[in-house]
Each structure stands twice: as structure tokens, then as C-alpha cells.
Design goal:
It comes from Canna indica. It holds the Pfam family PP2. This is F-box protein PP2-B12. This protein has helices at 11-19, 23-29, 34-40, 43-49, 54-59, 73-79, 200-211, 217-229, 234-243, and strands at residues 84-86, 91-95, 102-107, 112-113, 122-125, 135-138, 144-151, 159-174, 181-187, 190-196, 249-250, 256-265, 272-279, 287-298. The protein has 300 residues and is of the alpha+beta class. The chain folds into 2 domains: 9-80, no CATH class; 106-198 and 248-298, Galactose-binding domain-like (Jelly Rolls). The strands form 2 sheets. Strands 1, 2, 3, 5, 6, 8, 11, 12 and 14 form a 9-stranded antiparallel sheet that branches. A 5-stranded antiparallel sheet has the order 4-7-13-9-10, with no helix packed on it. Strand 1 and strand 2 (91-95) form a beta hairpin. Helix 7 packs antiparallel against helix 8.
Length: 300
């Protein structure tokens, strides 16, 4: 089979065209032909996918990022897809594998936690599975309030982002289902408020009890037992629709996450993004929440 017209272009021209796409599309282009495979692996392509302020970011790293003279820009890019600790270990930085956009996680120590320094309300300790040296565990509070912020100039421009609370629940957690928590993301004049629920089973029990008032105690018990024995049952779907908020999901690193909100970072000139997670209206006690941090990453 003869070469197509584009195959006769200099490799530099093909590399420049690929560099105008994305890391995902650059990897896919390797399957086109040998010429494309060679061009797609060039430093011309992957230099464009690395952030302009990479040197200053690497200077903030807790542990030096190893970049040998023989390493390619492609190797460097994919090494940075794994989070590195920066700013004394209070924050992590990585690149999104598909888009090359910057991702950050603010550690629990980098957040504002109401009564966080009061031992009878919160305790701080290390967990082997956490990327940070400390996590925060909620002992007992009736006023739950966690806030974080990040400067927009640190983020990638022209990128749609989402913020997530990264957490776990202890075996004895309670009070984190109903009433639901309130999450918000604010950027300039734009503000988005969501209802979230960290303990779906507690929320489901509340909704079932409300739906079945007057049916008798035995009837309520049977209905609860049915839902917990068959979590994919239609009743559980009805509960999610009735709640109308956001439930958490499990991450690949073993933690849970719940989306606090989303925003569009235009030119990075809007100052800072403020994120919050709170439940201050119920007046009841809550415990068992373990916070690793808040992650800001592209909304793919």
C-alpha cells in the first residue's frame, strides 16, 4: 500500500500537529502509522503538554523528581500523572493523564476545620493509606464545617474543574446521613450549592421511615431489611431520586469521594476558588468522618 500524502510530511510537521491535540489523542495517534508513532513520542509533542510553570512546581516538591538526561518529556509527563507532595507535604500535585491539566489535593491540614484543634472534637493522626502525613477524624461535633481554597492562577486555563471531598467513614460513624450536608464551590460571583450525603444507608433509612409511617413497626422493619439486603432494589433508586442530592463513590486508591461542586477556570484571573462542606442546621451530633483532603481535578 502506498503512503498517503500526510506520511510524506517531515516528522516535525506531524509532531507539531499532534502537539495541538491532547495527551490522550497523542497516544491514540501512535496506531496510525510508524511515522505517527515516532512523531507522537517526540519531545516537541510532550513539551507542549507539560505546564509552563513546571520548574517552579518541581522546586516546591518535597522529594526531588528524578529527571535524567536520557529521560524524554513523555516519560516526565507520565511520571507526573502520579501525585507528588509539594509545599511541605500539605498539598499534592499531578497531571491529568487525558488532558494534561493540573490537579491538586489540599491535605486536611491545609483546610479550615472548625474546632479542628480541639481534641475532644477532632483528632489528627497518620494513616498508611494516605498520601499525607496526617488525616483528621471527627470525634463528635454538632457543628460540622470544613473549608478550603486555591488560587485560580495555579490551575490550568480554559478548563472545567470539579472539587471533591476525599474521606473515609469509621465503623462507628453516625449522624452523617440525615439531614444531608451542604457543599458549595464559589469562584468570583459564581456560586454553586449542592446537597450531599456521606452516609447513604442512614439517609435511606430515614426516607423509608418517613414513607412508611403508619404501616406499623413490623412493616417498617421488613422494608428496611429488604433494602439493605438488596441495595440495587428499586426502593433504593426511589430513595436516591427523593433525596435529589449527591452520594459518594469509591476511588481506585481505596478512599471515598463526594463532589462538592464544579467551576470553569477561564484565564486564571478570578482570584481564588472557595470550597465548603458543612452541616450546621440539624443540631445533632456527628462522628466517624475521616478527612484526607479536598481534590481539584478536571471534570472529564
Amino acid at each position: 500500500m502506498g503512503e498517503s500524502g500526510i506520511e510524506r510530511l517531515p516528522e516535525g510537521c506531524i509532531a507539531h500537529a499532534i502537539s495541538l491535540t491532547s495527551p490522550r489523542e497523542a497516544c491514540c495517534s501512535c496506531a496510525v502509522s510508524t511515522a505517527f508513532r515516532s512523531a507522537a513520542a517526540s519531545d516537541t509533542v510532550w513539551s507542549r503538554f507539560l505546564p509552563d510553570d513546571l520548574d517552579s512546581l518541581l522546586a516546591r516538591a518535597v522529594d526531588p523528581v528524578q529527571c535524567s538526561s536520557s529521560s524524554s518529556k513523555r516519560d516526565l509527563f507520565f511520571s507526573l500523572c502520579n501525585p507528588i507532595l509539594i509545599d511541605g507535604g500539605k498539598m499534592s500535585f499531578s497531571l491529568d493523564r487525558s488532558t494534561g491539566a493540573k490537579c491538586y489535593m489540599l491535605s486536611a491540614r491545609e483546610l479550615f476545620v472548625v474546632w479542628g484543634d480541639t481534641p475532644c472534637y477532632w483528632r489528627w493522626y497518620s494513616l498508611p493509606e494516605s498520601r499525607f502525613s496526617e488525616v483528621a477524624e471527627l470525634i463528635d461535633v454538632c457543628w460540622l464545617e470544613v473549608r478550603g481554597k486555591i488560587e485560580t492562577k495555579m490551575l490550568s486555563q480554559n478548563t472545567f474543574y470539579a472539587a471533591y471531598l476525599v474521606f473515609k467513614l469509621s465503623d462507628r460513624c453516625s449522624g452523617l446521613g440525615y439531614p444531608p450536608q451542604e457543599a458549595s464551590v464559589k469562584l468570583g460571583v459564581f456560586s454553586l450549592i449542592n446537597r450531599v450525603c456521606l452516609q447513604p444507608s442512614d439517609m435511606q433509612a430515614h426516607l423509608h421511615a418517613r414513607r412508611n409511617r403508619g404501616r406499623g413497626r413490623f412493616g417498617r422493619y421488613e422494608r428496611w431489611r429488604s433494602v439493605f439486603a438488596h441495595p440495587e432494589a428499586k426502593e433504593a433508586e426511589d430513595d436516591a431520586k427523593e433525596f435529589g442530592g449527591v452520594y459518594p463513590r469509591e476511588r481506585t486508591d481505596g478512599w471515598m469521594e463526594v463532589q462538592l461542586g464544579q467551576f470553569y477556570n477561564d484565564k486564571g484571573e478570578d482570584g481564588e476558588v472557595s470550597m465548603s462542606f458543612l452541616e450546621v442546621k440539624g443540631g445533632h451530633w456527628k462522628h466517624g468522618l475521616i478527612i484526607e483532603g479536598i481534590e481539584i481535578r478536571p471534570k472529564n
